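Quick start: load a record and inspect it. Here is Protein SSUH:
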Amino acid sequence: MEQALLSGEEKREESWRSYQYLGRTSSSLRAPPYSSPAAGAGEEVSIEEIRSASALSSDRYYPPSIHGALVTSPEPDHPRIPQADQAIVFQGRYGEYQPGYSSKEVGREYLDEVEIRQLLIDHVGHRCCWGSQPARRWTISTIEDCNVYVGTLETFVEEREKIIEREPYLGEKVDGKDNGLEIAIWELDLRSEFPLLFVPQKEIRVKVPHSDIIEKCSDCEGRGQIACPTCNAGQERRTYKENQMSQCPACYGRGLIAHRDGSDTICTKCSGKGMLPCATCGSRGLVKCQACQGQGSLIARSIALIRWRTLSTRKVSATSGAASVPDEVFHRARGVQLCNIQAYQCTPAFFADSYLLNKFSSEVIASRFPVPPAARIISERHVISVVPVTRVTMSHRNRSFGFYIIGNSREVFIRDYPSKFCWGLCCCFEWLKV
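Running the structure step on this input writes:
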């Protein structure tokens, strides 16, 4: 039996309905408290529920489970999010992962020739040695719309390291084992110091309670003094000599200063002795130990060095039309998010109508930045965005050049502009901010 073809409006409705099952096929999304009890039993999920699920993955929300293994504290009021819980934020309809992706599907307006030429003229106007004639006079021969997919995986980690710091003991109060057991660094309650999720980096130093220890200074072995490095430089350890003298540099040890008329006078520098005491220790043979400031004892404390940082992995999937543009240009361009997943450890996103986007998401997850052994994962965020790209070719007689208009901010990228008069010095001028 032949089935009647769907109309254009019915096709769009059918495609829109496919997103209603996105939460069921991508991950086990916990039903929010305001949803109906039967929402997790295989029934259709409304579009409003999918969009409201993104509230569980706010950029400033810490999953409560990250504190459970670190400190002993009562359970928070909000429900615990399991490790596998992920929220996919729907940002708009997307089509097949292929060239010729229409700009309407990513919420981008078409650019006409007037807008394209004006963007190029403005871009050329900021280059001191570029002529504006090609931008103004040459003919726009082709305009090609293509898209670039940018995938990021941000892993927010916390590193804790214990270091020992020593300083002279001046008789102050000691917080040692008599006051309690030393707390392990991963048991320190640092919730008041936690930064916002996915900040680039933050570092703090915290003294570990009950870790003070009084030690004998190893440099002077508790005496508070060490052998003079000037007059006892060649002596063995723990030995020194007193009354070490050095030759007077003014009279060369004679005690007299000779003059041209043949007369001699007593050297005023050494008072006629020809020898001088050590300028460092006064020929005592000992100087104050700088490590303990002459106290003979040090106080050693354990310091917890805590670092929070975001490890980022980025990948770009560009069509052949935009393959010549560096990846850095796409990373800073503004596009449209297709998915935004936040979880303790992200898994690949699921797109109901695009196998290649699923494969691209898996490649981004597989290239996860290695986590240091002394670090713990706090949260991860996986984002896939589509960056609209317009490739324009301009020609004049037998010459032509191409440029790109990238992102929603309409950044112009051009590599070989035909009218340059800088002889390769433009990069120097840009560096000098001229």
